[in-house]
User: What shape does this take?
Amino acid sequence: GHPTEKPELLMRQLIQFGAPNGGLILDPFCGSGTTLRAAKDLGRKAIGIEINSDYCAIAAERLRQEVLL
Assistant: This one.
């Protein structure tokens, strides 16, 4: 979905290392929502900001999907 999408595994590792359980993640350039998805899967709250409405739609769809861990 996005030309500079980050690997979700990497974002999960960074979130686990840098944010406490229940913590809040701010992604001011969230693109297709990789960081937001990783934060949700790890039980963190997240705020994403994106100017491109197409990428916002992709991120919203990714966040609607449930993941079984």
